[in-house]
Amino acid sequence: MTVTERLLKDTESIWAEYHQHPFVQGIADGTLDKEKFKYYMIQDYLYLLDYTKVFAIGVAKAKDMEFMKRFANSTHAILDGEMDIHRSYMARLGITPEEAEHTKQALDNLSYTSYMLRVAYEEGQAEVAASILSCALSYEAIARQIVAEHPEADKHPFYGEWVSGYVSDSYHEENESLVVLVDRLAADYNEAQLAHLSEIFTACSRYEKAFWDMAWEMRK
Ligand SMILES: Cc1ncc(CO)c(N)n1
């Protein structure tokens, strides 16, 4: 079993909840209330700004060129790739990026990014990469399951753009390289170190679930 396979196995039950989540199901069948999606988009826009900083701290801590390049490329891929989806939806929903940036981060969102930033400031390369992994991989898994169950979901006039962004080949390739990186960095880890990686990955997986709950309830 690779390190990533172990992390995924340890969090199986949490990941199963993503697929059942009413917010995810609403994107899948196109019935999600647009007000909830608008709330989510603004919160996720704020989330991604902090998430980019986690990669940037990773760049500053890099001990090898592959890690440095991978993380530096990600800062660009998020700011000018993934966030294009957000800017496009925000334009459709009549929100400017400035308005989004002036919105307060909801507590679940703030807790999640504060945790990742703490890992980034305090820990090593593999641990930073593990804190990012559940975010990156869960969105691909969610979008792929949506398309498997609702083959037209990526063509939905409103939610299709979100779905197609996360089932795209470019998103998959980014994720694959992250998996290879984590597996390499932790290849020589002992059980205690692996258990600690799993603790980080599990916390982030729980935060992902909390983020969907927060969006569904439009928490302040
Ligand atoms: C909360 C959250 N998790 C993961 C992703 C995927 O990058 C995202 N955009 N937002």
Which key features would you list for this structure?
220 residues; 11 helices; mainly alpha
Question: What can you see in these coordinates?
Answer:
It is globular, with a radius of gyration of 17 Å. The chain has helices at 3-10, 12-20, 22-29, 34-61, 65-92, 97-101, 107-122, 125-149, 160-166, 169-185, 191-217. The N and C termini lie far apart (41 Å). The chain has a single domain, classed as Heme Oxygenase, Chain A, CATH 1.20.910. The mean pLDDT is 97. The chain is an all-alpha fold. The relative contact order is 0.18. Bound molecules: 4-amino-5-hydroxymethyl-2-methylpyrimidine. 4-amino-5-hydroxymethyl-2-methylpyrimidine is lined by residues 44, 47-48, 82, 135-136, 139, 208, 211. 4-amino-5-hydroxymethyl-2-methylpyrimidine binds next to helix 4, helix 8 and helix 11.
